[in-house]
Amino acid sequence: MRERVNPTLIGAFVIGAVALALILVILLGGGTLFQQSRHFVVVFDQSLHGLSVGAPVAFRGVPIGQVTSINPVIDADGGKLRAVNMIVDIEINRGQIRSAKTSLVDMESYNDDELADFFDQQGVRAQLALQSLLTGQLFVNLDFFPDSPVKKVEITTHHPQIATIETGLQRLGRTIDTLPIDQIIEKFTNVLDGLDRVINAEEIPRILAAAQGTAESSERIATGIEQQLDPIMTDLRGAAAAANQALGQAQDALDLEDGPAGELLRNLTRAAETAEGTLAEARTALAQVDHLLGDHSPERQRIQAMLGELTSAARSFRVLADYLERHPEALIQGKRR
């Protein structure tokens, strides 16, 4: 007789399996199963080699979402290819970008179109960035570029479009693409050919031989000049020694402390001191003479009176001498009456 299956055990097994499946879905989904997201489109007009579905979407390097799909769109007019645009669908986690007052920038009152317009006004642009130099993997980075133009492709998309901006490497790549590489290579090849012709020319060995001969001649001339310069240098050294000796003697002679010049300077100093004393005494004597001979001094008046009497006496002697010269006999007979 077959054993009867316990329904309670089967129910518990089914419930456990469902719970385990839910846990695995939540873990494998990175916690995004019940997370609300916003969806946007970024359109690039360049190769997206290195960008794949699931690549991060970052805001200034901080992951805020991921790439959900990549689709090329061909723009043709009348069978003529005009452009190939790469439409990248991105998913941004709601609530990860906050303002300074902890209020959400993407508030519930903003729908995706309004938030895209808000990004355009604030200068938020999308660009490709490199995840790793080794793998070459790319990601979509959002950042502020307030002075940049709003660059969007006129194309119908199922989500709002975020404007893009080129990176410095992309601008450099475009500049390199516009360079005339063929002409540059051709000119470089011509330069190399010219160098090859110059190096392998037949005149090069003769030029090298002539240069070697010139170097040898220069060496011989230098040797001869050196031999002739030895006696001259000896004489110059002797003259320099004699000049140094003469300078030493002159320095001794002009020594203001112990040499003859110093003795002469000391004598002159003593003579100057003596002359200064004599001048001081002369000044004193002149002052005394000036005092004696002043206009109102008694000594001057007495001297003047004495000089007057001497003048009168001299005049009398002169008259007497004239009279005796005319009458010498007066010395014997006396003056006539």
- The strand order across the widest sheet is 1-4-3-2-6-5
**Average pLDDT:** 76
Instruction: Count the beta strands.
Output: 6
What string gives the helices and strands in order?
A: HEEEEHEEHHHHHH
Residue stretches low in confidence (pLDDT < 50, at least 5 long) are none
Q: Categorize the overall geometry.
A: elongated
Describe the structure.
- This protein has 337 residues and is of the alpha+beta class.
- Helix content is 53%, strand content 17%.
- It is built from 8 helices and 6 strands, in the order αββββαββαααααα.
- It has helices spanning 7-28, 112-122, 168-178, 181-199, 203-253, 260-292, 298-326, 330-333; strands at 37-44, 56-59, 62-77, 80-93, 124-130, 138-144.
- A 6-stranded mixed sheet has the order 1-4-3-2-6-5.
- The longest helix is centred in the last third of the chain and has 51 residues, at 203-253.
